[in-house]
UniProtKB/TrEMBL annotation:
Domain Alpha glucuronidase N-terminal: 7-113
Organism (species): Dyadobacter subterraneus
EC number of this enzyme: 3.2.1.131
Record key words, sorted: Carbohydrate metabolism, Glycosidase, Hydrolase, Polysaccharide degradation, Signal, Xylan degradation
Annotated family: Belongs to the glycosyl hydrolase 67 family.
Domain of life where this protein originates: Bacteria
Protein name stated in the entry: Xylan alpha-1,2-glucuronidase
Residue ranges annotated for the Glycosyl hydrolase family 67 catalytic domain, each copy included: 117-436
InterPro entries: A-glucoronidase_C_sf, GH, Glyco_hydro_67_aGlcAse, Glyco_hydro_67_aGlcAse_N, Glyco_hydro_67_C, Glyco_hydro_67_cat, Hex-like_dom2
Domain Glycosyl hydrolase family 67 C-terminal: 437-661
């Protein structure tokens, strides 16, 4: 049985005879021009990979001289790649040559070559050149020092703080290798709701032991920080960012970290959000707080990543608008070492959100995008939701800030507004589950995030095909079934969970349907705040007659969403309060349309089960069963979701279930 531990790095033997013959022309030796740690790992990866793919033990030789018939890893400061970390792979003088300006690039090129070979593609006219479009490609772990993971559904934390620094779990290396194989070059080890403990010497040396493993795979280690640490840990009277003692404390702290971790990546900060401390506690701004930390990083390469996930503003107003209101006025005020990290949508990782209006509206501040891989709002580890379409939908959205074609991708990759530091972050879906992600298909979300952080022009389909071939099966028919299932999975989930632009029908654990939930410590911590169901209709009016959040977008965007008759149905209830009887562009009334989505969504899980079953003969039995059983849960829960919504909304709409759909039991 396949336990999923190897992820997409299975290196199953090449079975195509003609392809195998091609590959065998290049196994005489592996040559490396230099011998850094990362390069060393690239060589080892090739040896392991080719041993498994071709059954050959390949030895390493230092100099190529006039030899041919091997694989040459060539570190070349003048290599012809766009970026430092880019690579080029081509046939030269009878060798496969992987070249890059950096060891990282060699490692990425090596994984690209091995991926090519795992997919049994020809090397006859091999020529591949690729450079990352984003500089900081990172995972954010929401892991706590006690081993729990906030919003984690795949076991507990990988990081065994109680064993470190002496015992370094071998799994850290497997983790680093998996990340490097998809191009990820940074990891934040701890939760954004950060414990000050990570700033203690005791923990810094633990983090250093992990960082040492990461470094060998070109990955920098970062920490989330607790803004009030000067007070709680340092014993100061205040954590005011303008206080000289506080500034000195952070400078010393950062110096202390660099003593142990010379390539430390930097800090990630959640401040003045959901009860976390921050500069506003002292009447200072986000920029004051971020710049103080940036100052502490001046002597080093590290950066400060400041999150824009805030909604402190009037809870009776529209939370949608809060981040824009707090951050746009600060554009131009941040130190160049600061990157502001923005969630893809204005609320919070909902199954479908419009893009955050911050994108494009802070031309002087590098904005990174934050996606969520862990399925906090996507059915945890029991629902299959392939997330690449969520990431792509966001990246491909047009902000129109510099005219047509000003996509979020172009904002984030710096090409639109000239950002020097570009960032894409994914909130990790990884825990210590044997298969890393709990749901076997959730591995694809980690994979897709990495691939897109490297190259956001890849399509969801391309990535799904690649992942399926590498991870699950080489059988083409089965691949079609699985890729089909993956590509539709997000829309199916949206249909039974939050169709037509509904959002946040849960509180607390974010799983059980609770659209009726109307009590919370603040109005925007209730479910009814978001959907606004009443006897007249459903949805949040964000036009000028409502909260006017639409005014935060450019006129071209506003135009798409301003008129309830023209708003695409997937976004309808994000922007309009729509009458139950209103006829929609589909020809159905709102009530009929909602029911159609809830019912077809829940029924489509049966279709997913069928697709999966069709692939069964081509799948490992353990993986087959694991997913099949999770799909059964998903089916049951989809019906639960549908019925909860339909029965609840029916109390307002006061209409029968449309013909053809059975009433909820
Ligand atoms: C969500 C999530 C929290 C998390 C927060 C954040 O609200 O439920 O657990 O801390 O996002 O991103 O900071």
């Amino acid at each position: 049985g396949e336990d999923g531990y190897k992820l997409w790095l299975k290196y199953e033997p090449v079975t195509e005879p003609s392809i195998k013959a091609e590959y065998l022309k290049y196994v005489a030796f592996i040559s490396e021009s230099d011998h850094g740690e990362i390069m060393h790992n690239a060589v080892q990866e090739l040896q392991t990979g080719l041993k498994s793919l071709l059954g050959k033990n390949i030895s390493v030789s230092k100099a190529v001289e006039n030899k041919s018939g091997g694989i040459v890893l060539r570190l070349d400061p003048k290599a012809d790649t766009k970026q430092q970390e880019g690579y080029r792979i081509q046939l030269t003088a009878g060798n496969i040559v992987v070249s890059s300006k950096s060891e990282n690039g060699i490692l990425y090129g090596t994984f690209a070559l091995l991926r090519h070979m795992q997919m049994q593609l020809s090397v006859k006219n091999l020529k591949m050149e690729s450079s990352p479009k984003i500089r900081y490609r990172m995972l954010n772990h929401w892991d706590n020092p006690d081993g729990t993971i906030e919003r984690g559904y795949a076991g507990s934390s990988l990081w065994k703080w109680y064993e470190l620094p002496e015992r370094v779990d071998p799994r850290y290396q497997d983790y680093a290798r998996a990340n490097a194989s998809v191009g990820i070059n940074g990891t934040v080890l701890n939760n954004v709701n950060a414990s000050a403990r990570f700033m203690s010497q005791e923990y810094i040396v633990k983090v250093a032991a992990v960082a040492k493993v990461m470094r060998r795979y070109g990955i920098k280690t970062y920490l989330s920080v607790y803004f009030a640490a000067p007070k709680t840990l340092g014993g100061l009277q205040t954590s005011d960012p303008l206080d000289p003692k506080v500034r000195a404390w952070w400078k010393e702290k950062v110096a202390q970290i660099y003593k142990e971790i010379p390539d430390f990546g930097g800090f990630l900060v959640k401040a003045n959000s959901e009860g976390e401390p921050g500069p506003q506690d002292y009447g200072r701004t986000h920029a004051d707080g971020a710049n103080m930390l940036a100052e502490a990083f001046q002597p080093y390469e590290g950066v400060v990543i400041w999150r824009a996930f805030v909604y402190k503003a009037d809870p009776n107003a529209d939370r949608f608008k809060a981040a824009y209101e707090e951050f746009v006025p600060l554009d131009g005020k941040f130190d160049p070492k600061v990157i502001v990290q923005v969630k893809n949508g204005p609320i919070d990782f909902q199954p479908r959100e419009p893009f955050s209006p911050l994108f494009g509206n802070m031309p002087k501040t590098p904005l990174g995008v934050e996606f969520q891989l862990t399925q906090e709002y996507l059915g945890f580890a029991t629902h299959a939701v392939y997330e690449a379409p969520i990431f792509k939908e966001n990246l491909d959205s047009d902000t129109y800030v510099n005219g047509k074609g000003s996509t979020v991708a172009k904002v984030v990759d710096g090409s639109l507004q000239g950002y020097m530091r570009t960032l894409m972050a994914g909130v990790a879906n990884i825990g210590n589950a044997r298969n890393w992600t709990g749901h076997p298909l959730a591995q694809a979300n980690w994979y897709a995030f990495g691939r897109l952080s490297w190259d956001h022009t890849l399509s969801s389909e391309q990535i799904a095909k690649e992942w399926t071939e590498l991870t699950l099966t080489r059988n083409k028919k089965a691949q079609e079934n699985i890729v089909g299932l993956m590509l539709r999975s997000r829309e199916i989930y949206v249909d039974y969970n939050t169709p037509l632009g509904l959002s946040r029908p849960w509180m607390g654990v974010h799983f059980a349907p609770e659209p009726w939930q109307n009590k919370g410590s603040r109005p925007d911590w209730t479910a009814v705040y978001y959907h606004r169901a009443d006897s007249a209709g459903l949805g949040f009016d964000r036009t000028a007659s409502g909260s006017n959040a639409l005014a935060q977008y450019r006129p071209e965007v506003r135009q798409q969403w301003n008129d309830p008759d023209k708003t695409p149905l997937p976004y309808l209830l994000w922007f309009h309060h729509v009458g139950w009887n209103k006829k929609l562009s589909s020809g159905r009334t709102l009530w009929e349309e909602l029911c159609t989505h809830f019912y077809t969504g829940a029924d489509s899980v049966v279709w997913m089960q069928q697709q999966w079953d069709l692939a069964k003969p081509a799948l490992d039995s353990q993986v087959y069963t694991d997913v099949a059983e999770r799909l059964k849960i998903q089916r049951r829960e989809a019906v639960w979701w549908r019925d909860a919504w339909v029965l609840y909304l029916q109390t307002f709409a006061k209409k029968p279930i449309p013909k053809g759909f059975e009433p909820p039991k």
